[in-house]
Amino acid sequence: MAIVTPSNIGSVEASGTSSTVTMTVMASVAVGQRVIVAVMSSVGGRVLSSVTDSAGNTYSIDVTNTGTSSINTWIASAEVTSGLTIAISSITATFADSVSSVRKMGALQVSGIDHASPVEGTSTKTENQTSWETGTVTTTTANTLQVGAASILTAQTSTAAGGSTEAYDLS
User: Fold this and answer.
1) What is 43-62 written as a DSSP string?
2) What is the rounded average pLDDT of the residues 34-41?
3) pLDDT band (50, 70, 90) for residue 87
4) What is the SS3 assignment for 129?
5) Whole-angstrom Cα distance, residue 78 to residue 9?
6) How far is CA 90 from CA 20, 52, 151, in A?
7) Beta carbons of 83 and 28 less than 8 angstroms apart
């Protein structure tokens, strides 16, 4: 099965003291799709405890990047076994602590991802600039999808590297 181009199902930004950030799903997601979530916190050293949704799908935290003292980024994903409904369903990221911070989250849906082995490899890289640079990931399977999350603390926009597509910019 070929991977279908991911589509944006929503994003959110929250600030203040809280251990969660919750996003309302802005597009329905059918059973069999995969939801990929990028989460950012402006406070270094935080631990992302879980990502959940109101339909009860099971998320794994696939990538953790705690590369600087002032920002953390995670990528989590779930195979949808219970569909998500537009404007009714929600996705919540929960942190191990409740501190004053900026918390951002964005989510994509995609079909065609291998159900048995949805994550073939991961890599992290920390840079201090506005253009994307990624770590190296070697894949051995045809039809792979590479997903990246770039977190920028200041009010800037980022630019996807050549051959990449930016789904959303949460700055």
Assistant:
1) STT--EEEEEETT-PPPEEE
2) 90
3) very high
4) coil
5) 14
6) 12, 9, 22
7) yes
Give residue for tokens 């009010």: 155
* Residue matched to tokens 């950012």: 40
CA dist 13 and 5 (Å) reads 24
Give 165's pLDDT tier (boundaries 50, 70, 90).
Answer: low
Structure confidence at residue 155 (pLDDT): 59
Structure tokens that stand for 87 in this block = 């404007």
- The partner residues of 80 in beta bridges, in order of sequence, read none
Residue 96 is classified by DSSP as E
CA separation for the pair 35, 91 (Å, rounded)? 10
Distances in Å between the alpha carbon of 81 and those of 37, 49, 58, 78, 169?
Answer: 16, 21, 9, 9, 28
Q: For all residues of the chain together, what is the average pLDDT? A: 81
